[in-house]
What we know:
By secondary structure, this protein is mainly β. Helix content is 0%, strand content 52%. The chain has strands at 3-7, 10-12, 18-25, 34-39, 45-51, 58-60, 68-73, 78-83, 92-99, 105-108, 112-116.
Amino acid sequence: QVQLVESGGGLVQPGGPLRLSCAASGFTFANSYMTWVRQVPGKGPEWVAIISASGADTKHADSVKGRFAISRDNAKNTLHLQMNSLKPEDTALYYCARVGDDDLPDYWGKGTLVTVSS
Length: 118
């Protein structure tokens, strides 16, 4: 079955970097668009970034543009999110998700918590 397992979250000081990873299995990773979504407890989800199946095309939310970068390694079935210049407002649970045929996420990981605080 489809499995998505995020890792790399933790506590980081404002201005610091963090790199998230998402290990995918149970489907043909190289054929799927992938996305990162974050959610602050008690608030709605916020889309962060999306990447095409080949990795050639990416888009990022305005709130993270220039600071975050989505990437993928199709040989290792792994999705990444490099986060730089982190701000306290980036604190959230970060999920990776597969993008389904209707352009909406159809499978989600359990998330990894990122806390930006001094």
